Amino acid sequence: MNVDRLEEEIRDVLTEEVACHAFLLDGLEGRVATELTGRLPRRGPLDSLRRLLAPTRGARLGQLAVVGATAVVFLTVGVFLAGRPPFARETRLPGSLPLAAVAEAQAGNRVLFVMPAPNASSVAVLGTFNNWVPTPLAKNKDGIWTANLTLAPGRYEYAFVIDGRWLGQDPLADEYVRSFGEYNSVRYVGREGDGA
Amino acid sequence: MRTLGAVALVFLSLLAFSGPRLLAQATPIQVTQRIEALSLPHEAEIVSAFQMGLSQGRLSADDTLSLVERLGATGGSRFDQDAILLTIAHALENNLPVTTLQTKAAEGLARGVPLPVIAQDLALRERLLAEVRDLLCSKNIFRAKDGSPAVSPALPGPRFDLLVTHIADSLGDYLDGGGSPRDGYAMLAEVTKRLNLLKGSVIPASDVELVLSRIEATDLTRTVLEALNQKQN
Predict the structure, then answer these.
(1) Average of pLDDT values for A134-150?
(2) Distance from CA of B100 to the nearest CA of A (A)
(3) Which residue, A37, A52, B66, B177, is the most exposed by fewest CB within 10 angstroms?
(4) CA-wise closest residue to B198 among A169, A152, A150
(5) CB contact under 8 A, A153 and B202
(6) Cα–Cα distance between A90 and B15 in angstroms, integer?
(7) Residue B4 banded pLDDT, cuts 50, 70, 90
(8) pLDDT in tens, A78-110
(9) What is the pLDDT of residue A83?
(10) How far apart are CA A162 and CA A92, in angstroms?
């Protein structure tokens, strides 16, 4: 029953009461309720579902329960597929170097150059700190290439060379500049406020 | 005998991994000999300026020798090789800081950029260095004479050179990135950002504040247009 029509329905029932029973106050409330219930349309299974999702306080709880159950199902499937629970996973950089290790390797004026390239046979970094003469990176078992250099405070432009191909955009860079039509990465070493 | 062999092997490995610098430190004479071997049109001028730069400590013998050797190894035209070294020589003669010119040339050679393109880029950057120095002087920020006490606003040479280097370099990078030389506000933003990132750690905070309080967007537009116009002439 439409809520907007409720008042009209109640008025109808009361009018009938007056006509049929000479408006006896005793039991009036029960009789009106019974009459109104009789006028309600029968509910099918879809109506029950609609009612469950309706924006009433009770229905919102139902809605939350459905959302919660769905989340639990997805989490369970996710954990199963990933092989271990997400909260047990370390915070890692793309290419899987732990962030803690990265932070340690960049303490003071130390600069960590990282390049995930499992299939590469050689990776080097070159820039203003080595007069653009390649410094080779070392590969770990996960295929991550790293070099940890100590540099004097300053601004350094650099790029990686992976199997002879230049790559100027390092995700760990502070900024990028264009040089000879290509990109160079830039790191600022010993900046104020970096704790260096 | 076996032990001796192992020690020799370890020593040789260390030498190999340390690179050529540990094997021998470059000398100014070697730099001169390498330049002479290129048979450049302005050989005398270049040699003279480089010897002065080396003796003043404004050039490192190792880096200079490496640059000249790499330039010779390109097999490019000796006129283009000459143009690159002559630009650096002019900067030395004009008492400009040359670090960025050297590293720019080294980068271009490492990237395999054609020599005329490197020469063109260096020429613009040398003009920018000169124009920025003139700009600072016009704003009453001077380079103190070597040995004389630094009295504000005369800054000791290395501090003044740092300002010139980084302002000119950020303008050069801005132009290389396709920025408009007429957009003074964008250039001022680039310069301000660069100097603030280096403030305290590389450039004294007082020097950064001094410069930023005195230069304006229109100054930079004028400076860059001057450099570009002189490059075209």
Answers:
(1) 95
(2) 9
(3) A37
(4) A152
(5) yes
(6) 39
(7) low
(8) 555 444 444 434 455 555 566 666 666 667 789
(9) 44
(10) 22
Q: CB contact, 8 Å: B199 with chain A?
A: yes
Rounded to two decimals, the ipTM of the complex is: 0.85
Answer yes or no: do A132 and B200 touch at CB < 8 A.
no
Mean pLDDT of B211-220: 96
Query: Are A96 and A103 within 8 A, CB to CB?
Result: no
Q: Is A32 on the interface with B (CB under 8 A)?
A: no
Handedness of CA B99, B101, B104, B109 (dihedral sign): negative
Q: What percent of chain A has pLDDT over 70?
A: 47
Spatial neighbors of B146 by CB under 8 A, at least 6 apart, are B157
Phi/psi of residue A162, each to 5°?
-110, 110
Confidence of residue B104 (pLDDT cuts 50, 70, 90): very high
In angstroms, how far is the first alpha carbon of chain A from the final one? Answer: 72
Judge residue B125's burial from the number of C-beta atoms within 10 Å of its C-beta, 0-12 exposed, 13-18 middle, 19 or more buried.
buried
Identify all chain B residues contacting A191, using CB atoms and an 8 Å cutoff.
Answer: 197-198, 200-201
- N-term to C-term CA, chain B: 70
Name chain A contacts of B67, Cβ cutoff 8 Å.
131
Task: Return the pLDDT at A9.
Answer: 74
Residue B120 tokens, joined: 């063109």
- Provide the pLDDT for residue B22: 47
Beta-carbon separation of A180 and B107 below 8 A? yes
Q: Which chain A residues are closer than 8 Å to B202 by Cβ?
A: 153-155, 190
- Answer whether residue B158 shows pLDDT above 70: yes
DSSP string, B25-79: ---HHHHHHHHHHT--TTHHHHHHHHHHHHHTTSS-HHHHHHHHHHHHHT---HH
pTM over 0.80: no
Query: Using a CB-CB distance cutoff of 8 angstroms, which residues of chain A are in contact with residue B111?
Result: 166, 180, 182
Number of Cβ within 10 Å of residue B191's Cβ equals 23
- The pLDDT value recorded for residue A24 is 55
Tell me whether the omega of the peptide bond preceding residue B153 falls within 30 degrees of 0, making it cis: yes
**DSSP secondary structure string for all residues of B140-172:** T-EEPPTTSPP-TTEEPHHHHHHHHHHHHHHHH
